[in-house]
Design goal:
The complex is a heterodimer of chains A (113) and B (112). With 113 residues, chain A is an all-beta fold. Chain A is 0% helix and 58% strand. Chain A has no helices and eleven strands. In chain A, the strands form two sheets. In chain A, strands 2, 4, 5, 6, 9, 10 and 11 form a seven-stranded mixed sheet that branches. In chain A, strands 1-3-8-7 form a four-stranded antiparallel sheet, with no helix packed on it. Chain A is globular and about 40 Å long. The relative contact order of chain A is 0.34. Chain B has 112 residues and is an all-beta fold. In chain B, the strands form two sheets. In chain B, strands 2, 4, 5, 9, 10 and 11 form a six-stranded mixed sheet that branches. Chain B is globular and about 45 Å long. Classes of the chains: A mainly beta (113), B mainly beta (112). Chain A binds chain B through residues 1, 4, 31, 33, 35, 42-45, 48, 55-56, 58, 91, 93, 95, 98-102, 104-107, and chain B through 30-31, 33, 35, 40-45, 48, 50, 88, 90, 92, 97-105.
Chain lengths: 113, 112
């Protein structure tokens, strides 16, 4: 959906390197979510923001993960240092209001070797 | 921990057959959504159910929400190869700030 643009689409990096994933949502949403999807664990909620403020980060696996939302049009998910087990597809999604439809980006496929 | 269980995990059927996918939780949902995901894309919403006992139809797809709002099902009639994809249920739990917990998904393959 053109409403959420993620970059890059694919990222291959070496273990120990810093990785930054980007999300540019359209305006007019209240909530922004970061998810991680793997075959083993499915779609896991990492963190979500309400009006740019982090609300629930209980899904962030470790201190190596951090997320920011400096404004309503931009968010980042950073992994430092990256590890092979971080390999997954990372999705950014938005909701205008709670209980409404979530719009997902196309995801970033991260491979850590 | 609020767990959302989906079954079956994999389903492979012939074109024209019917199928049902289940989504269950021990907690009550404020609302529940069904999404479909295709390879290389993010999930796309199919339906939202809110009221216990609610039934919604979308062409050959029928969605039911349990009376107690703890479970839901997706029934597809006369499946077609175009129905192939990953079906995901996602819930907002009542009384919790946590949003959009997803089930593990059902990978459906409809063979021609």
């Amino acid at each position: 959906d053109a409403g959420v643009i993620q970059s890059p689409r694919h990222e291959v990096t070496e273990m120990g390197q810093e990785v930054t994933l980007r999300c540019k949502p359209i305006s007019g949403h209240d909530y922004l979510f970061w998810y991680r999807q793997t075959m083993m664990r499915g779609l896991e909620l990492l963190i979500y923001f309400n009006n740019n403020v982090p609300i629930d980060d209980s899904g962030m696996p470790e201190d190596r993960f951090s997320a920011k939302m400096p404004n309503a049009s931009f968010s980042t998910l950073k992994i430092q240092p990256s590890e092979p087990r971080d390999s997954a597809v990372y999705f950014c999604a938005i909701r205008v209001l709670r209980y409404t439809e979530a719009f997902f980006g196309q995801g970033t496929r991260l491979t850590v070797v | 921990t609020q767990l959302l269980e989906q079954s079956p995990q994999f389903l492979s059927i012939q074109e024209g057959e019917n199928l049902t996918v289940y989504c269950n939780s021990s907690s009550v949902f404020s609302s529940l959504q069904w999404y479909r995901q295709e390879p290389g894309e993010g999930p796309v919403l199919l339906v939202t159910v809110v009221t216990g006992g609610e039934v919604k139809k979308l062409k050959r797809l029928t969605f039911q929400f349990g009376d107690a709002r703890k479970d839901s099902s997706l029934h597809i009639t006369a499946a077609q190869p175009g129905d192939t994809g990953l079906y995901l249920c996602a819930g907002d739990y009542s009384g919790s700030a946590r949003q959009l917990t997803f089930g593990s998904g059902t990978q459906l393959t409809v063979l021609p």
